[in-house]
From TrEMBL:
This is Glutamyl-tRNA(Gln) amidotransferase subunit B, mitochondrial. PANTHER family: GLUTAMYL-TRNA GLN AMIDOTRANSFERASE SUBUNIT B MITOCHONDRIAL AND PROKARYOTIC PET112-RELATED (PTHR11659), GLUTAMYL-TRNA(GLN) AMIDOTRANSFERASE SUBUNIT B, MITOCHONDRIAL (PTHR11659:SF0). GO terms for cellular component: glutamyl-tRNA(Gln) amidotransferase complex; mitochondrion. It is an enzyme of class 6 (ligase). The gene is GATB.
Amino acid sequence: MDVLSFLLHSDPQRLVGVVGLEIHAQINSKTKLFSGSPVGFSAPPNSLVSFFDASLPGTLPVLNKRCVEAAVMTGLALKCTINKKSFFDRKHYFYADLPAGFQITQQRQPIAVDGALLYSLLGGKKRNQVIQKTVRIKQIQLEQDSGKSLHDDLRSQTFIDLNRAGVGLMELVMEPDMSCGEEAAAAVRELQLILQALGTCQGNMSEGQMRVDANVSVHEPGEPLGVRAEVKNINSIRYLAKAIDFEIQRQIDILQRGGVVLKETRAYDSKSGETISMRDKEGLQDYRRVFMPEPNLPPLIVYTDNASLPPGIDVRQAVVVEAIRKRLPELPGVKRDRLVRSYGILPEHSFTLVNEDGLVEYFEEVLKATAKEPRKVIGWVTNDLLGHLKEQNIPVSQSPISPPALAELLELQETGQISSSVAKQVFQEMWRSPGKAAQQLIQEKDLGLVADTNQLHSICQKVVDSHPHEVDAIRNGNKKVLNKLMGLVQKETKGRADPVLVRAILQDKTS
């Protein structure tokens, strides 16, 4: 039984998990939050560093408008209240990889507060029941990313790469409304899809564009929350679920043995599948953080609409909430509901479509070019096409079969020019021969339906004559055996026989 099922069906007096998340999302911007340095992954070390990033004396921060707009757009998508005035602060802490020795963040009043993320889980025995969940968003704050420490264990040296120092982040703080790894993973995946739809964060966790800290505790329902441990810097949704579930069970085991859960920071070891203690939050003096207002940045002001702009303010330089709201795209949850409602597909199919970048657009383009029902098209898109894409690890945008090409193949099947088994063969040939149309391949390989009725009668008679036991079974009332004979005919014709016609001929010959 998985952790979610355990928590849903366990004794109310049992210890249960409580999970809150802090997510650092790298803002999709060409330049950093307070400098003109470009943002880029895997550039040569220290090649994307301005004087300000390196904290040279006399340099001052200049706020990136794009980063502010991204935070506002994300806040609107998550139903947050956008603060018209927010503040920047210096967070003094032990930063080995920030030359200034502090991080510019928003501690007193962040740009967005009090939001909600709606997400869904697939539950039930067949994993096809949609379970709706909500997690509250406490706040979204703008802040700088730190640099990166590169450790050389052989030489016992540490090198600093400041390329990432100063890159704009949105820190999203989620309330402890989740109870297990599966819920947290579903919430983070939904957030990832939202950010990608908005274009505010590319969400590539393997490149550090989204990093998750999980605050995990256990308690008895109705009792105060327990002591929490923080599992830091998880960069995979799959590892997030595993880390949380392990940590919940670890704390339950400690308490059941009469022990005490420590307030500490832990890391997840993907090789062992365990969380490992990094530092004790209660005992270490160097863990203390000191905040002070950032003296070099004025309050951040955003405006409700153009009418609220003060005289003399250039609208091109202002951040206007209503203008950003008008640019909000269709969000993943809305898109899934629309797909189910408009095309009659199953909810789990809508999840598959939305989870894969570009697959919804591909599916809808196919539908525009074929009369085939959406429920028949969905299997081709989510099974055949997506299966081949995953096998070769390529995105939808690089599919060798275009939506019009797949639609042409499906039309040939729908109009009875080829059988379903031949359609599968042609799909494989189209994948191997990009640019070749379905009709061309059918002609080249002689895959069209056998139209000669006399030839079909001859093949059916041959199958009937060579399988007397099956014929007797059919004549004695076992009609299911007819399917075996149909399969043998299709084998003889390499899947090119019209199944309706074959069934009629076989029924006549076995009656």
